[in-house]
Design goal:
Layout: H1 13-29, E1 40-43, H2 45-51, E2 58-63, H3 68-78, H4 82-88, E3 95-101, E4 113-118, E5 121-127, E6 129-132, E7 141-144, H5 147-152, E8 162-164, E9 169-171, H6 176-182, E10 184-185, H7 191-197, H8 200-212, E11 215-216, H9 218-224, H10 227-236, H11 239-250
Parallel strand pairs: 2-5, 10-11
Antiparallel strand pairs: 1-2, 1-8, 3-4, 4-5, 6-7, 8-9
Helix pairs in contact: 8-11
Length: 269
C-alpha cells in the first residue's frame, strides 16, 4: 500500500516530546555510525493500539543499525547534557530505571536490549532483526535485519506495523492496516511456517483475537489444529508458558472467543 494511502498517527503532546528528543539523539549520533544514520521506528502493539484509538504508555523502539543496549546507554548520556535538559525540561525522575539485557544465549537471551522509562512512557529498545529457527527450538538465531525482515518474523500482521519517527509515517509491509480495518488476525508468513517456528504463536493469536474481538483468518485458524503444529507446541513450549498465555487469554474483553476456536487445548496438557 502506498504511504500516501496509509492512515496517519496523531501523537499526544508527550509522545511528540519523546519523539523530538529521540530524533535529536539520532542526529547527534549521525557522525559516528559506519553503517549509516540511525533510524528509529516505534513498533508493533503501540502502532496497532494507536490506530484503534487506544492510548498506550508502552513503546517498543526498533533501531536499524545499533543494538538496544548501545542505544539505551547513549540515551542515558544524552539526557544528562545541559542543553537537552533545558530544551525538554527534563526533571530528576523523568528518566529512570535504565535496565540492560546483555547477550546470553545459554539463557535464551539472543539480543542486547535495554528498557527504561522516559516522560512516563515505558520504552524497550531493540534492533531490527531477522530470525532463523532450529527444528526443535523456539529460540532463534538472530542477526540484524531490515524493517521488512523484522515485520515478516512477527506473529500477526496487525502487530507488524511500524511508525517511522523520521518520516512521521506508518510502514506496513504485511497488510496490517487492511487487516486491522477488517478485524482479522492473520500471519505475515504462511501460518504453518509461523507456527512451526514458534508454536506459542498459536496461543498468542487466539489471545489477541480474544482481546480485540477480531476473527482469525480461515487458513490461519485451520493451521492451528494441524497435528504437526500441536506436536511442536507440546515439544517446544513448557506447560508453564502455555499456562501464562491461557491466563492472559481468559482475561481478554472477549474471552468467550477462544472456546469456539479449533485449538484442542487438551493436546498440550
Amino acid at each position: 500500500m502506498s504511504t500516501s494511502l496509509l492512515p496517519r498517527i496523531n501523537l499526544t503532546p508527550n509522545e511528540t516530546r519523546l519523539k523530538d528528543l529521540l530524533l535529536d539523539l539520532t542526529a547527534s549520533l549521525a557522525q559516528d555510525q559506519p553503517n549509516g544514520p540511525v533510524v528509529l521506528r516505534w513498533a508493533g502493539g503501540w502502532v496497532r493500539d494507536k490506530l484503534l484509538g487506544i492510548e498506550s504508555n508502552d513503546i517498543d523502539v526498533a533501531i536499524n543499525c545499533m543494538t538496544g543496549e548501545t542505544f539505551g546507554l547513549e540515551l542515558g548520556k544524552f539526557c544528562q547534557q545541559a542543553w537537552v535538559v533545558e530544551k525538554y525540561g527534563i526533571k530528576k525522575d523523568d528518566l529512570h530505571g535504565l535496565h540492560l539485557i546483555r547477550l546470553n544465549p545459554e539463557k535464551s537471551k539472543n539480543l542486547e536490549t535495554a528498557t527504561t522509562q522516559l516522560f512516563g512512557v515505558d520504552l524497550d529498545f531493540v534492533n531490527l532483526r531477522k530470525e532463523t529457527y532450529a527444528q526443535d527450538s523456539r529460540n532463534p538465531e538472530v542477526e540484524f535485519g531490515t524493517a521488512y525482515e523484522d515485520a515478516m518474523r512477527r506473529d500477526a500482521t496487525v502487530n507488524a506495523m511500524f511508525y517511522n519517527l523520521h518520516s512521521d509515517s506508518i510502514e506496513d509491509h504485511t497488510g496490517g492496516v487492511a487487516d486491522l480495518k477488517d478485524k482479522v488476525i492473520r500471519t505475515p508468513l504462511g501460518p504453518f511456517q509461523t507456527f512451526m517456528d514458534d508454536p506459542l504463536r498459536v496461543l498468542r493469536l487466539v489471545r489477541f483475537a480474544s482481546r480485540l474481538g477480531f476473527t482469525i483468518a480461515e487458513n490461519t485458524c485451520q493451521c492451528m489444529s494441524d497435528p504437526r503444529v500441536l506436536d511442536a507446541l507440546a515439544l517446544k513450549i513448557t506447560r508453564e508458558r502455555v499456562g501464562i498465555e491461557l491466563d492472559k487469554m481468559l482475561k481478554g474483553e472477549f474471552s468467550s472467543f477462544h472456546f469456539s476456536s479449533p485449538l484442542n487445548t487438551t493436546s498440550i496438557n
